[in-house]
């Protein structure tokens, strides 16, 4: 190889490589030398880098943080992708989290899957339709209940540790609440803003103890709290194989928390600075009318044909 190279460049004939002392020859040698030095240096750097990585103080706390399981009910409507996008990018700030997105539907929607893929938070997308008898009713519906129970079922099968939290797709969450709930050993509670006429739903704390609940609607509930205001340890849930959420509008949280008995009020951990801070809000999005049908003749071969496919119509 070497001699060919030199021969080609020197036009010095068949035996040109045989050690003749000319300038071209030393050029070949020096190229080889530089190459050798370059490769050797690269190798040394790689070895040193590997060593550096292996010696890096192992961020023990970082990598073994208990997992968070965020159960999010969702359903088909014009706002759906916007809500999931907003919540998803909030969750993206949180490590070791699995987002269980469960749609009240008979089949998954590729538009939702596409949105979740784009956000990039680890997720499972499942469906759990509301039973027909509740769908038909003229009265209040148990919204998101089959979804949340499906999430609980998933955790009983696939999770062993960590904490679960029901995060409706339309609420607002400060990410610090996620780090606080991660270490809960049984059940934790904290205030939720924008709930009823009191403007907030919160445990009442006196001298460090839970002494009651503040909420514009008590309704005979043992735990008058909002869905966004509590988290439960996975181990604790699994020790209560029957715990689930009832299909009882207004009493979903209370029914679920009651099903976690035995649970003494003294065992409830109080987060958000012992419930002096508000880190979650029960925000509600204005309902949008379904998008009107696109005039396909008029807008043929325009971008609107693409956008139209991204609209979620009920
Ligand atoms: C709150 C609670 O979060 C609900 O669990 C409870 O059912 C409701 O109050 C109530 O007491 O009636 P709210 O904000 O009023 O919820 O209701 P939505 O935000 O419309 O629904 C709660 C969750 O269920 C959302 O994540 C939503 O996407 C989902 N949902 C709603 C469904 O899966 N299916 C529906 O038909 C409606
Ligand atoms: Mn809501």
TrEMBL record:
Q: Where in the cell is it found?
A: Golgi apparatus membrane
Assigned keywords, A-Z: Glycoprotein, Golgi apparatus, Manganese, Membrane, Metal-binding, Signal-anchor, Transferase, Transmembrane, Transmembrane helix
In what way does this protein cross or attach to the membrane?
A: Single-pass type II membrane protein
* Reactions performed catalytically: 3-O-(beta-D-galactosyl-(1->3)-beta-D-galactosyl-(1->4)-beta-D-xylosyl)-L-seryl-[protein] + UDP-alpha-D-glucuronate = 3-O-(beta-D-GlcA-(1->3)-beta-D-Gal-(1->3)-beta-D-Gal-(1->4)-beta-D-Xyl)-L-seryl-[protein] + UDP + H(+)
Cross-referenced SUPFAM superfamilies, in alphabetical order? Nucleotide-diphospho-sugar transferases
Primary localization: Golgi
Task: Identify one Pfam family in the record.
Answer: Glyco_transf_43
Single GO BP term:
carbohydrate metabolic process
Q: Which GO terms describe its molecular function?
A: galactosylgalactosylxylosylprotein 3-beta-glucuronosyltransferase activity; metal ion binding
Name the Enzyme Commission number(s) assigned to this protein.
2.4.1.135
The active site is formed by 253 (proton donor/acceptor)
Transmembrane segments annotated in the record for this chain: 33-51
Q: Which cofactor does it need?
A: Mn(2+)
Per the record, the domain of life is Eukaryota
Q: Where does Mn(2+) bind?
A: 170
Gene Ontology CC annotation, any one: Golgi membrane
Tell me which residues are marked as the site Interaction with galactose moiety of substrate glycoprotein. 292
- Keyword tRNA-binding found: no
Q: Which pathway does the UniProt entry assign to this protein?
A: Protein modification; protein glycosylation
- Database matches in PANTHER family: GALACTOSYLGALACTOSYLXYLOSYLPROTEIN 3-BETA-GLUCURONOSYLTRANSFERASE BETA-1,3-GLUCURONYLTRANSFERASE (PTHR10896), GALACTOSYLGALACTOSYLXYLOSYLPROTEIN 3-BETA-GLUCURONOSYLTRANSFERASE P (PTHR10896:SF50)
Family statement drawn from the similarity comment of this UniProt entry? Belongs to the glycosyltransferase 43 family.
Protein name (Swiss-Prot/TrEMBL):
Galactosylgalactosylxylosylprotein 3-beta-glucuronosyltransferase
This protein's species is Drosophila rhopaloa
Gene name, please? LOC108050420
